[in-house]
Amino acid sequence: MLGRGSRLRGSRRRRGWWGGLAGVLILAGLAAWWLWPAATPRRHPLPAKPPITYEEPLPTPPAPRPGASLQAVDEALFSALGRAGLPPSRIKTSQQRQGGGSVTLMVVRLPPGQDLEALRRRLLQGIKAAGAKGSWRRKRGTAELLVYLNGKLTHRLRLWQPERPPGKTLPPAPPTGRLPRVALVVDDLGYQWKAAQRLAGLGLKLTFSILPGGPFSRKTARLARSRGLEVLLHLPMEPRSYPRLDPGPGALLTSMSLQEIRRRTLEDLAAVPGVTGVNNHMGSRFTERRALLRPVFQVLRERGLFFLDSATSAHSQALDEARREGLAAARRDLFLDHDYSLEAVRQNLRHLPTLAARQGDLIVIAHPHPSTITALEEAAPRLRKQIRLVPLSRLVASRQARAAGRRSARRQRP
């Protein structure tokens, strides 16, 4: 009996040992199974959250001398004209494309008897104090001041003095009593839902431009339409620095065939339903290619949509090609937040009413940066009193009509 008991106890010890080993192996297997995915890459990784993409950087101009800036030159010119008794109603401003940038053209209608020599001295003193240089030319009845900042032509000021008929004086310009119109387009929406909600809650007549591939693109479009805001498709296009700078999902690339460009344009339009127009996201390379733009604009014409050139390239062909294809089209005038520090955006908003009054209307592009939204929230009560925010389509139609009028007038000239 004792021998048999010893054998039973030995058998139990062996079974216990093997059972313990089996338990250890099972635990080791479970640990390996748990840790294996972290140690080795998955064959089908989960999609990463897409990055928030903003407009491509514009070419950096040469660093100005201390105290010299375009804004300082603008203010010096208008200040000198104002001290000479020339109100804004006598000044027309526009932007002319020249070389790799733009030049501000100012046409000033002088009253009869205006002292041109005194005005010349006043203007030259003003721009010198702003850090710029001027070249003065004078012809019978007219004069022209060319303004250079850091060796580059930035302003062309044309002074026109009509001869006064005997016994007659020019009537004063009638006050319009209307606030200048501004279309404020907020680009790059579709990735930040809270930013879209804050912008829609401002009570300002903004225009939302929405990227086609964002997780909140459709939701943002519905929100904008529910608040009575105009919606655009922010159509991604290839920038010069591609592929280092990625324009995001749905982008139109210069390597695509015309059929691919048309198909992708249709897909992007379907991703943001209910749009009235389109503007380009990035696209400094793509917008320089007329042949590639043509299928895009053919789709927009078929859909009855307009186009806004975001002007990310000084050599963009988009505006001319869009009009050639029969589209209502315009070009943006300025970026509100290219420098998106809070103080820079605040300063641009302070100058917005003056710029709009000088030009008559203004197309401005902004982005959903936290600093931009904060500055707009602060400035909203003031902006309602100083400017009239309108949907972008209204200014595009106005500019289209003015362009048609100028073309008609040129054709009628003998």
What share of the residues lie within helices? 40-55%
Catalogue the unreliable spans.
33-51, 164-175
CATH topology annotation of the largest domain: TIM Barrel
Strand content: 15-25%
What would CATH call the homologous superfamily of the largest domain? Answer: Glycoside hydrolase/deacetylase
Overall structural class, as computed from helix and strand content, comes to alpha/beta
Largest sheet: 9 strands, parallel
Structural domain tally? 2
Distance between the termini: 135 Å
CATH top level label of the largest domain: Alpha Beta
Provide the residue-averaged pLDDT. 82
DSSP strand tally: 14
What's the Cα radius of gyration? 32 Å
Looking at the overall shape, the CATH architecture of the largest domain is Alpha-Beta Barrel
The coarse overall form would be globular
Instruction: Name the helix and strand elements from N-terminus to C-terminus, one letter apiece.
Output: HHEEHEEEEHEHEHEHEHEEHEHEH
Q: Tally the helices.
A: 11
